[in-house]
Write a structure and sequence with these properties.
The complex is a heterodimer of chains A (about 325) and B (about 350). Chain A is of the alpha/beta class. Chain A has helices at about 55-65, 85-95, 115-125, 130-145, 150, 160-175, 190-210, 220-225, 245-250, 255-260, 300-305, and strands spanning about 15-25, 30-40, 45-50, 70-75, 80, 95-100, 180-185, 210-215, 230-235, 235-240, 310-315, 315-320. In chain B, α4 packs across α5 (about 145-155), α5 packs across α7 and α7 (about 175-185) packs parallel to α8 (about 205-220). Classes of the chains: A alpha/beta (about 325), B alpha/beta (about 350).
């Protein structure tokens, strides 16, 4: 299900986000949760979105699904502006992009049988009925590793967290979406189960030709699934680029600290990483200019007065920093 | 104003560094009475913890790691729990000790840091007063002396502007700051043993690094021994001298950290290491997932609990529980009928 690429510009984006801004509250109480975030997701790829709590990664995902309303900016799905869609058009759009949430148990209705939970999107749209619907649901449950014959008529409470997450995945696939937004979908699971779910996600992605926005705080998990990775800090995008490049030669000082703090299960790794001191400032009153400058060892006056724009440091690798850690090959443009 | 210096308190709590072993656990078994029958959450665990030693306890949910730390701390409700075996802290038996006897040990001999800093603090009490409370009740400090010591503790755990934070309520602090307060409370009585149960789970990575470094510094400075309980192999890899891997209530492998990581013999240890995603992996690396899920403790399989998920399981594994056996490395033990070959040996 790939979109034909316009001549000469590489593959077209399935999802195109421009200056997405989400502000909660007004006036003195306004919290700038997401501020002018722009990125594209090409059909068939996985974009990882990482950052610490409060950086706006989940709000970004929710704004794309229109669970929260963007304050400014545009979101285009397959070239169609969906930012201001309402009613039936919005509902139709949501069948093409689906979200999987962190807590697998609370995202399933405890009073409904698994089979009906998974079938609900189909029933809402009256897409299939009778034996055709039942066969479709059984097939979907089998694909996520739940036996429909023995487990299809059970309630969510009789499943473990990992199994509930499988059921959530099945439900999200019922309408055959193009884009899946996974918000911390494995962070509540044990490592052994987490690995199963990540492998399942990769299999289904290949099978259904899915495009993924994978939001998570765990840098190792994100590296394992993503083609490209975007890093957010206090509502803004700091850096975006191919996963391997970004992890091997991060250009933004914040990315360096974030990666340095990631713990490897290896006793020979560096015991005491350079620790980023302090905590993120309040989004109620973010610093002027670059939002990371209050904790950045490289910050200068320019960082306080001028907000850094995303600039390309290598093909496809862009960073929002006045003093990036790698040399800028293409300044501005 | 009382002129009691805080040193009068530390005299009563100074560690008696007579024996090399601080904590000695023998055949510890914790059984819960449930409606589904007795549930053995900790099953025959034995280990020694030396002074100023940091032991990592690793396992997935249901492995018994949290119940183990709570048993040592003596926190489990006595009505539905049976504890057998022995836990000796500095020679004092904890199993079967009365709650009053435990009270004498809490905070001054053994203290605990819990996972969730929000629920382990009182939300309607200023954080400073929560530290004062320990100092006044456990150490008998005066109000003024307690306040002075609390401020010292707050700066010891790296809280900026302690005088301001002293008056804050937990809800006004970030997760990382709250965990620092919890650590300050745990350290108030200068305990010889600190039990840290998932102290950084739920914190952001950069904050996690701060808290782990803080714990490192404090254990060295205050000559504490630490039991660090976690599900995260990354946390124990560089922060512990020894680790103990638990599965379904039993210790399946234990030994010097470097040795267990490099030369593990129990297939579960290997599976756990291999299924963890790594920052060094290439994108779309297929993870070696462990099939199935951790067993239900109320309905444990006969024999080795890991056998149903183990690639090397034989008929004997399903029948007999393997005992811990020593490897050639001192202190490295594993419980397996079909162990992985020692490093350098032939692959199975």
């Amino acid at each position: 299900m790939t979109t034909p690429a316009p001549a000469g510009v590489g593959p077209a984006a399935l999802l195109s986000v421009r200056d997405l801004t989400v502000t909660f509250g007004r006036g003195a109480h306004a919290v700038s949760a997401v501020d002018a975030v722009s990125f594209d997701i090409v059909a068939g790829e996985t974009l990882g979105l990482v950052g610490e709590s409060g950086c706006g990664k989940s709000t970004t995902g929710r704004a794309l699904m229109r669970i929260v309303t963007p304050t400014a900016g545009t979101v285009e799905l397959d070239g169609v502006d969906i930012t201001h869609q309402r009613g039936r058009a919005l509902r139709r759009t949501r069948t093409r992009m689906q979200m999987i949430f962190q807590d697998p148990i609370s995202s399933l209705n405890p009073r409904r049988r698994v089979r009906d939970i998974v079938a609900e999107p189909l029933d809402c749209w009256r897409q299939m009925r009778g034996p055709e619907r039942d066969a479709f649901i059984d097939d979907l449950l089998l694909k996520v590793g739940i036996d429909p014959l023995t487990h299809g008529d059970r309630y969510p409470r009789s499943f473990s967290g990992g199994q509930c997450q499988r059921i959530s995945i099945a439900r999200s696939l019922a309408m055959r979406p193009q884009l899946l937004i996974c918000d911390e979908m494995v962070s509540a699971l044990d490592v052994s189960v987490q690995a199963q779910i990540l492998n399942l996600l990769e299999d289904l992605k290949a099978q259904y030709g899915l495009t993924l926005l994978f939001i998570a705080h765990d840098l190792a998990v994100v590296k394992n699934v993503s083609d490209r990775v975007a890093v957010m800090y206090l509502g803004r995008l700091c850096e975006i680029g191919p996963s391997t490049t970004l992890y091997e030669s991060p250009a933004h000082p914040y990315t360096t600290y974030l990666l340095g703090a990631a713990l490897e299960a290896d006793p020979t790794s560096r015991a005491r990483p350079d620790v980023l001191e302090g905590e993120p400032p309040s989004p109620l009153n973010p610093p002027s200019g670059c939002r990371f400058r209050t904790r950045c060892p490289r910050a200068s006056d320019r960082c306080a007065s001028e907000t850094p724009a995303l600039r390309e440091v290598a093909p496809g690798h862009r960073v929002a920093c006045h003093f990036p850690l790698v040399r800028v090959v293409d300044d501005g443009a | 104003m009382s002129a009691t210096p805080e040193r009068t308190t530390s005299a009563t709590t100074a560690p008696v560094a007579s024996e090399p072993v601080l904590l000695s656990v023998r055949d510890l078994t914790t059984t819960f009475a449930t409606n589904a029958g007795p549930l053995r959450a900790v099953d025959g665990v034995s280990f020694d913890l030396g002074r100023e030693e940091v032991l990592g306890v690793v396992g997935e949910s249901g492995s018994g790691k949290t119940v183990l730390s709570r048993t040592i701390m003596g926190l489990l409700a006595r009505s539905r729990v049976t504890v057998s075996g022995s836990v000796r802290l500095d020679g004092v038996e904890i199993v079967g000790a009365s709650e009053n006897a435990m009270r004498q040990l809490w905070s001054t001999r053994v203290a605990m840091v819990f996972q969730d800093p929000m629920t382990s603090l009182n939300p309607v009490m200023r954080v400073g007063h929560q530290i004062d409370e320990v100092l006044r009740v456990r150490l008998g400090l005066s109000r003024t002396a307690a306040r002075a010591r609390s401020l010292e503790l707050l700066s010891l755990v790296g809280i900026p502007s302690p005088a301001e934070r002293y008056r804050a309520y937990p809800g006004q602090l970030s997760g990382g700051m709250r965990q620092r307060v919890v650590i300050a409370i745990a350290l108030a009585g200068a305990p010889a043993l600190l039990l840290a149960d998932e102290p950084t789970t739920g914190l952001d990575v950069t904050i996690q690094a701060q808290i782990l470094n803080l714990l490192d510094d404090l254990t060295a400075r205050l000559h504490m021994s630490v039991v660090l309980v976690t599900h995260d192999l990354g946390v124990v890899a560089t922060r512990t001298s020894r680790i103990m891997v638990m599965y379904a209530g039993r210790v399946v492998e234990s030994g010097p950290t470097a040795d267990v990581f490099a030369d593990h013999r129990m297939p579960y240890t290997r599976a756990l290491l291999e299924c963890s995603p790594r920052v060094s992996n290439a994108p779309h690396t297929r993870l070696a997932a462990i099939p199935g899920r951790p067993p239900n403790l109320a309905a444990l399989p006969a024999g080795c609990s890991f056998a149903p998920r183990c690639a090397y399981a034989t008929e004997r594994c399903h029948r007999e529980v393997p005992a811990l056996v020593e490897t050639t490395t001192p202190g490295h033990q594993y419980a397996c009928w079909n162990p992985l070959p020692a490093r350098g040996g032939p692959r199975p």
